[in-house]
Amino acid sequence: FWVVPAVEVKIEVVIPEKERSKEEMSPNGKASPLIYKVNGTARHYHLEEHPIASNPYHNPKDVVEASVCHVKDLENGQMREVDLGCGKALLIKEGGEFHAVGHKCPHYGAPLVKGVLSKGRVRCPWHGACFNISTGDIEDFPGLDSLPRFQVKIEKEKVYIRASKQFCSKGHRPLKATYTGLSLSPSPLGAAGLVCAETLRQEGFSDRIVMCTLDRHLPYDRPKLSKSMDSHPEQIALRPKEFFCTYDIEVLTEMQVAAVDVKSKIAVFKDGFKMEYNKLLIATGNTPKTLSCKGKEMENVFNIRTPEDANRVVKLATSKNVVIVGASFLGMEVAAYLAERAHSVSLVELEHVPFKKFFGERVGRAVMKMFENNRVKFYMQTEVSELREQEGKLKEVVLKSGKVLRADVCVVGVGAVPATGFLKQSGINIDSKGFIVVNKMMQTNIPGVFAAGDAVTFPLALRNNKKVNVPHWQMAHMHGRIAALNMLAHGTEISAVPYLWTAMFGKSIRYAGHGEGFDDVVIQGDLDELKFVAFYTKSDEVVAVASMNYDPIVSKVAEVLAAGRTIRKRDVE
Fold this sequence. Notes:
- This protein has four domains: 60-170, 3-layer Sandwich (Rieske Iron-sulfur Protein); 185-287 and 418-488, FAD/NAD(P)-binding domain; 301-414, FAD/NAD(P)-binding domain; 506-571, FAD/NAD-linked reductase, C-terminal dimerisation domain (Enolase-like, domain 1).
- It has eleven helices and 39 strands.
- The chain has a six-stranded antiparallel sheet. It has a five-stranded parallel sheet with strand order 16-15-14-20-32.
- Strand 10 (130-132) and strand 11 form a beta hairpin.
- It starts with 8 loop residues before the first strand and ends with a helix.
């Protein structure tokens, strides 16, 4: 199959900030053309043909104007949530100027007034997304949408906010409008591919974009597979089906790529289907490791990769015995989710403390105690030797220690390997562990081929450009954006600070930085009360931070690190 660029109509539309719908905004907020195809006939509409009225609101009835405070009520560097009558706004004063934007993070609805204000942007206290206070544009992830921006005026020492009722109540605004692009995702289609496609459209790319995935669903919020296991695909979709139609982004589901011919610029699919590309993004993610013991193939043994997997586990686990192998993020989150639903939850792990390599032993023990207080039983420093069945279904899990655990369901979370096997003969540079090697612009060694997400190693500015793999949701978003910008020759380098979170028993651990190889942990607060902040140091430098019930400390540290400043161990002791 050969990709032939379609004839398109290019309509340059400039929409007032307050009237931009979610689908008409970009992560960088710059206005860009919307591209439409109309019966193969091309027409170009220019701005001078459609002058914009001075009043940015089409219908005065759709506008609210409210007096929200006195000019002296806010000092520089302060934020306040204010009521506009039809909803709320976040009022910010920085550098002597007032700004007003949406008050909730579009990702999961965190109150931004509790976030961190720094140098023209506000960072979400929960998951670290960043928004420009002048434009509302999203500047760091997770999430796809920007904040609405509202007009601010000062009259007689009073601050007034003028807002569209639509965005006042909605709280977010999305996409703007494109290069022949092909995004390959043989595993479930995630954030990197979607953000890449959206960014191309936002930046004015008007040619064909095709996203290919082995999954049967449109892109969805994958972290929820282990945090909210009974979610259905349509509930966790990142964008509705109509979005892809509106912005002319093709999605080919249940398609597996078998090889990439970089000389001919052709992707070859398992069924023999071929597709030519101009620019290629490989965002294939990873493949979960499986058990190597006897019985690993039997029914009711799961790697959770899809919403159907998660839903099936919840159904089978209810009032039954569950064994989880691996105290990974996935394993621990699944254990927490099932603890109240299952008759019993047992967790098997090779280490003596969960999360030891990531959070350190002291934090790991505090988390372990929380799980034990919620009826989760740990079997540490052992592994599975056999899975036993009765009438074709799982009945027992036998450990190498000799212990036999009753099990109706087994969930395996023992890590993953990059899904890059199909690239071995491609000429694309793959390291010894199977990761695709990219530079700061997410480019591989092959011109026109980019890679992003869990399957790559890239230079992390925070750690002196050391090549690292950061398999987390926020970073996948940023990879996709950087790749798209450089497909369009912007020359943009990645400089984001890694930010992640895990949720268990209604509590969250937030984490920023890259703590690999840390040699000490400085803890402030009370681990027993699960209210603490842990600073991970290497030599004399803080390289990462984690917290529980200590917001917004992680977002504060992330802002300091993003500014290129060094935090010394003595500063946090």
